[in-house]
Amino acid sequence: MRSGTRKEELLLSKAELDRTWVLRKVLNQMSPVEAMELLREKMLKTESNEEFLASMAG
Question: Which residues, 6 or more positions from 22, have their beta carbon under 8 angstroms from its beta carbon?
Fold first, then answer.
């Protein structure tokens, strides 16, 4: 069963959308535990969603 269209392009800027896709590709290559550890580590180091996505750039 597939979910509906997310329409992310209406909610995010081009830069945020690009970083979101990069993040998904990176997480997809990891085990679930590794992916959650990476997300948790990055989230603990940032104060906002914008800052979190910006941290994905490098």
Answer: 56
Number of domains in the chain: 1
Q: Give the tokens for residue 44.
A: 């603990």
Q: The whole model's pTM is what?
A: 0.72
What does the alpha-carbon distance between residue 41 and residue 49 come to, in Å, rounded to a whole number? 14
pLDDT digits (tens, 9 = 90+) for 24-51: 999 999 999 999 999 999 999 999 988 9
Torsion angle of C-alpha atoms 49, 14, 18, 41, degrees rounded to 10:
-10
Q: Which domain holds residue 32?
A: 13-55
